[in-house]
Amino acid sequence: MTSRGQSTAVSTPAPTGDGRSVTEVQYPSDGYPADHSVAGSHGTHSAHSAHSAHSAHSAHEAHDSYGTQDDRAVPTIGLDQLHDTVRRIAANVERVLVGKPEVVRVALVTLLAEGHLLVEDVPGVGKTSLAKALARSIDCPVSRLQFTPDLLPSDVTGVSIYNRQQSDFEFRPGPVFANIVVGDEINRASPKTQSALLECMEERQVTVDGTTYELGRPFMVIATQNPVEMEGTYALPEAQRDRFTARLSIGYPDAAAELAMVDEHAGANPLSELRPVSDGATVQRLIDRVRGLHVAPEVKQYAVELTAATRQLPEVRLGASPRATLQLVRAARAQAALSGREFVVPDDLHAVAIPVLAHRLVLTTEAHAARRSATDVVRAILARVPVPHGNRTR
């Protein structure tokens, strides 16, 4: 991307009339996003454009009451256009991540839900490649941040620097002032630096020296971490994990997919050949479209019962929060859109429950001793809580 010669420049956010500030982004003249470089305590970190993927997920036929529309205004963009854009993004990502359509689906659901994605797995399975491929598929400002132990909060959010010519302080935006922020090995940064993302991820804004700056839309954080090498790492606090809409593990590919990867990727890097297939404005329209999908009262109640069940189990020390309920419904809306429906059914909640809920649960010592995982707990809850069926449960 740097060979295009022009880098993305993020100007100093200008305060608006109400005391808040808005970030102004200058786009490269050739239509492609240039690399957004950020100087941190470890030097300059390059940012790349990203890509996201989708694979259709089937759902059972729904009762008529699920499809009842309310009086909200329906955005102009149609599901056909959404499917076309999603298909192109998915195909782009799958050029890099071979044989993992389910992983791509979860990543795309998170994107359409305007959430944040935590990719947690062993080294070498494609965590960073997934994040970069998703980012490169969308023509919008993208930043990449390599988390290290000596990284400071100001290296993430930005810093106020004294301008001698103007005899005043001016704000230099950090890498979070982008539409997609790729954070590599987030658990290698100190808790103080990790906490610099809390306000960004939840409120889509940054406060520095008493001034609040709005972040652009859409805004998505894609973070990776390695759960195996624990030396020199800092576990993400629960408040940080709860802000990630979904967590996924890529896993090892099967023999056929690994052989295809050797044939296709051994001689060239597929990331270098990716080109954007959509843009930030289109993705934001898709997000707005998904946000308007209908959720019946029975389905909302089912989502509440699922998260409430996680707080009542003896093997769970900390259950899912109310924020998890909101994220579960938003992700279910995105899953329904990928399935071609204007309304959410219980199967949509089932399809996203594990990636949305499992990483939020803290199990007891006894559960760990019994080799119970958070994924096992969520599966048990899905099997136990009665599923609504129209105006009754089953």
From TrEMBL:
Q: Which organism is it from?
A: Saccharomonospora azurea NA-128
List the biased-composition ranges (Low complexity): 36-56
- Annotated region Disordered: the residues are 1-72
Polar residues bias spans? 1-14
ATP-binding as UniProt keyword: yes
Name the keywords, alphabetized: ATP-binding, Nucleotide-binding
What is a single Pfam family found in this protein's UniProt entry?
Answer: AAA_lid_2
Q: Where is the ChlI/MoxR AAA lid domain?
A: 309-380
The ATPase AAA-3 domain covers which part of the protein?
A: 116-245
| Basic and acidic residues composition-biased segments | 58-72
Q: Which domain of life is it from?
A: Bacteria
Q: Does the keyword field hold Nucleotide-binding?
A: yes
Q: What would be an example GO MF term here? A: ATP binding
- According to UniProt, the name of this protein is MoxR-like ATPase
According to its UniProt record, which protein family does this protein belong to? Belongs to the MoxR family.
Q: What is the lineage of its organism?
A: Bacteria, Bacillati, Actinomycetota, Actinomycetes, Pseudonocardiales
